[in-house]
Every structure is written in C-alpha cells, then in structure tokens.
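The following record pairs a protein chain with its ligand, flavin-adenine dinucleotide.
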Amino acid sequence: MTSRSLPRRVVIAGAGLAGLRTAEELRSLGYDGQLTLIGAERHPPYDRPPLSKKLMTGQLDDTTLREDLSGLGIDLRMGVQATEVRPGVLQTSSDAHAFDALVLATGARPVRLPGPGRQFVLRTIDDALGLRELFKKGTTLVIVGAGWLGAELATAAAGRGCLVTVLEGGREPLATAIGEQVGALTRPWYGEHGVELRLGQSVRSVEDGGIALADGGTVAADVVVSAVGVRPEVGWLDGSGIALDNGVAVDGELRASMPGVFAAGDCAAFESARFGRRLRFEHWDIALHAPEVVAANVLGGSVRYDPVPYFWSEQFGRMLQYAGWHGDGSRLLLRGDPAAPRWAACWLAGPRLVAMLTVNLPRDLQQGRRLIESAVRVEAGRLADPAIPVRDSAR
Ligand SMILES: Cc1cc2nc3c(=O)[nH]c(=O)nc-3n(C[C@H](O)[C@H](O)[C@H](O)COP(=O)(O)OP(=O)(O)OC[C@H]3O[C@@H](n4cnc5c(N)ncnc54)[C@H](O)[C@@H]3O)c2cc1C
C-alpha cells in the first residue's frame, strides 16, 4: 500500500466479465465503500464464450455469471449507458456518478459490413438467442469471416443442419490470429463438417437475399452473419481527455491517463513489459484476471500486469488453445503431424518460446505456457518432438 488516499466511491462502467470481476475483487480485498456497476445491457453480467458454443448448439440457455449478486453490495444499474467522463464524474444516460476511482470495462463491439441487407452479429446473449432460432435444418447461412468466431459459428450451424458457406477475405482461415501457414492447417476441417469455405472473397455489401462480392458476384443466403472482428468500445470516451490507442491506453498497472481511472478487459490496451509494446486482447482469461490487478491498484497498490495471454476455441470437434503472443519475426515450428487429431505449433524468438497453439493437447499447452512465462531457452529439436514432454525442451 502507498500513502495515496483510499477511495470510498468506486464506479465501474461496463457490466461484463471484467466489470463484475473488478467488483468481486474489490470486495474480496476488503473494500467496503460505495460500489456502482453500470451496464448498458438489460441482463446482469453473463459469460460470452458459451454463446457461440453450448448455447448455440442448444445445450445451454443461460450463462449468468453470478446468481447472488446482491451479496456483493453493489449498486447495479443495468440498461444504463455511460456517456461521458469528466475528472471525478461519470455521466450516464440516467444520471451522474461522482467517483474517487473509475474502472472502464466496456468491452468491444462487432464490426458490421456495409449494405442495406439484414445481417446478424454475435456479441450479446440476445444476439445469440436470436441467431439460434434461425439455425434450422436447410437454412442457407453465409458467415463472413473465418476467424475464431466464424469457425465456431460454422461448427454450431452445420451441426444444426444449416447449409453453411464461410466467406473469408484472406488466403487462409484464422490467418489474422495465427498466420497463414498454421491457419492453412485448419482448412480441411471445414469440408469434413460439410461447410463450404471460400477463401480470398472480398465482400462488398450485404444485400436483401445475400452477399454482393467486390468482383461483381453474389452469394445467396437466407441468413448472413458477419464475424469480421470487433473494435474496443471506447468511442464514448472521445473528448474526455483520456488517452486512447486502439482502446483505453493504460500503463503496466492498468492506469489510464486521467488520475483515478483504470481499464480492464477487451477495451484496455496495456503496456506489456514481456512483449515490449502496447497490446490489447479479446481474451476471456484477460477479463478474468486483469481485474485482480485493477482492484489492488484502486486500493492503493502498485501491482504490475504482465500476463502470458491465453485463449481457447472449440471448433469442428477440436479444442484449440493458444498461449503467448507470436508478434512479428518469430520462427514457426510444428510439433506432431497436423493431419493427426493432436498437434501443436510453436513460435520461437531466438532460443525462447513466445507462443504456442495446441490442438487437443491441453497438457502441452499448460507446459508451454510455463516455458513462455519463465522465458527459459528451449531446444527446438526437442520441442518439435511430440514424444518428449514440452517442459523437457527447456535447456
Ligand atoms: C460469442 C463469443 C465467444 C467467445 N469465445 C471466447 C473463447 O472461446 N475464448 C476466449 O478466450 N474468449 C472468447 N470470447 C471473448 C471473451 O468473451 C471476451 O474477451 C470477454 O467477454 C471480455 O470481457 P469484458 O468484460 O472486457 O467485455 P464484455 O464482455 O464485452 O463486457 C462489456 C460490457 O460493457 C457494456 N458496455 C459497453 N459500453 C457501455 C457503456 N458506454 N456504458 C455501459 N455499459 C457499456 C457492454 O454492453 C457489455 O455488457 C468470446 C466472445 C464472444 C462474443
């Protein structure tokens, strides 16, 4: 603890995972002052990863994160939009809240394609329940974007009997996230599950009845879903004086440029000492754990946040897990046969492992994540050998 005066009024903007976790952490650290949680949605905080997985396949209807919210002693304001920040005051669509500390946790919003036709996105539980209704046998569905979300939606929709086409602008699926070379290894999965994957397709617009392509072609569809990425939900902070840089620009302690203001989760771009640059992730694990650091620092601490990022995706009957960040210039190494049900991709910077993707290999991922964390030197030959445990590749 430092000598900074401790807050008595903490306001959190955004009632998703990062917002709720911040409230939980503050209370678990003994904070007993006023705590206000403001969320634009009507629903109390809920989990998003199942929306494209178990909820979309019909195995789940509700992903509420915490049933006993009242136990946290929060002033919960749902259906309320935070609209403006001035020093010490958060303005919302209904009233103004004076704060000693403000935590920005407004997440991200999906990018929409141009055009007058109806298009669906998937970010909220309302989006998910609406979309699930349309995933019926024989429905012609076009998903634009073969990223993580596009692949998961294609899996769920094909499983429900839809006729699914995925249009991807890039040369391979998942290329933005894991590069073309590794992304290409996931390409056969689409056909195996009866999904048509069309690469190098530049979409011009969504029209009534389907998609207009930039080359003049069209793709007919009953339902169009755009899964072309998200942007941090920070437009409402323009003009507030809070520095923005692909999200709320925060330092290694998750402090924004305005005193007393912090940010966490999908909306926060933080200084990563580990990777030597400002980074923003759309990872559940970041929204889960960054609030531990925010809460400690709101209460006067000086805790640094420098995670090995972690993400997972369930697609085409496989569990994909990714830890680290491979950035530019790292060297790719495959571990195992990508045609087999289990394999991994490793990225090395010099003699160190900086990122790892595993397919159905959770133990390898866990061990790889530790190697990335400790930044030990590894022997590439041993790492590439699936018969040798990942941890035994450390020199
Ligand atoms: C369908 C789907 C599947 C996913 N699957 C995975 C996965 O498999 N693995 C993984 O690691 N990650 C996954 N993610 C990502 C993960 O869910 C996010 O990283 C996580 O939800 C981020 O939490 P957050 O609290 O920062 O933001 P959010 O969950 O977006 O919450 C932010 C909240 O703030 C509210 N808000 C926005 N603006 C305002 C405002 N001005 N005023 C008040 N409230 C506001 C929003 O309405 C929202 O409820 C998935 C995401 C989606 C959408």
